[in-house]
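2024-03-11 09:14:02 DEBUG pipeline.ingest accepted 1 chain
2024-03-11 09:14:02 DEBUG pipeline.ingest length=187
2024-03-11 09:14:03 DEBUG pipeline.predict start
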Amino acid sequence: MAAKDPLRDLALAAAGGDDDAMRRLLTAVSPAVQRVARTILGVCNAEACDAAQESLLAFASSLGQFRAESGVLHFACRIALHVSVSVRRRAAAGDKTLQAFLGETTGSADSPPASDDELAARQRRDTVRALLDSLPEAQAETLALRFVFGWSLREVAEATGVPENTVRSRLRLAKTALQQRIAGNRR
């Protein structure tokens, strides 16, 4: 028997209009939502805070559709992942447009030099984010939930509302696409 979700009753009360329950629920899910936004957008990215706030608003407004098929925290994190990926894609599109307009390349002469470890870590994070951005949204979401956040196949299936076999298929397609992209970058 599955353990009872400790946030379920709070979520149902908040969805029913209980303002105190909403405040307590948002306080409870906020750290996880912020962690998702920072993971997708970067710890030092100013938009991570905005994405977390946007995610909490989306979560609060979506409580009426919450059917308790997954845990409340998973529901909140899934919304945060979706919002953060959308913010990242909008920002990437805006950066490309601005750079094209200004005729600039990336990098700043004003930035202090970083250590080799910091550069390598930053490059890995940027590579993962760029690879996620290149995937269809459903595949990127599934891949991030599974490998970035470490959710089980069943948890991903519950959070995304699809069967486990669909999760497996999305993971396979995402891995294949990423392998092809990585192989293409080596040439």
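2024-03-11 09:14:41 DEBUG pipeline.report The radius of gyration is 18 Å.
2024-03-11 09:14:41 DEBUG pipeline.predict end
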